Amino acid sequence: MENCPFCQIIERKLPATILYEDEDAVAIQDIRPLAPVHLLIIPKKHIDSLNTVAAEDTALIGRLLLIARKLAFEQHIGEPGYRIVINTNRGGGQTVFHLHVHLLGGAPIAPELLVKGLQ
Ligand code: 5GP
Ligand code: ZN
User: Fold this and answer.
1) Out of 29-38, 39-48, 67-76, 101-110, which region has the weakest mean confidence (pLDDT)?
2) pTM, entire model
3) With a 6 A CB cut-off, is 39 part of the ligand 1 pocket?
């Protein structure tokens, strides 16, 4: 989709550090990391947000989570653990409207991160 930064990264029209790719998804380093490990797992199919995921995408959503888990272990944060975040729409803090899963870890969770985006 035009003017979508993640579609452009997938099409190699924008640079990114791509750590994983298969026929359905890519995983990149976040350009403004909030943690020592901060990756984004992104479906190649443009879906605006979790709110517009269709029933036919159910398996794809599951794949994204299993890719996140695999990358967490590759990044050595499977233990002690990590956080998965899907910001959904502006009220949920979403700024890029191409569905993506945040994988965050590598440091203790800051207390304020528990409520980030909710005030
Ligand atoms: P959201 O707030 O939509 O859940 O998360 C969007 C994330 O994408 C943010 O953490 C932001 O830093 C990251 N981001 C935005 N544009 C780019 C980009 O062009 N390249 C990369 N690697 N990350 C991006
Ligand atoms: Zn897109």
Assistant:
1) 101-110
2) 0.95
3) no
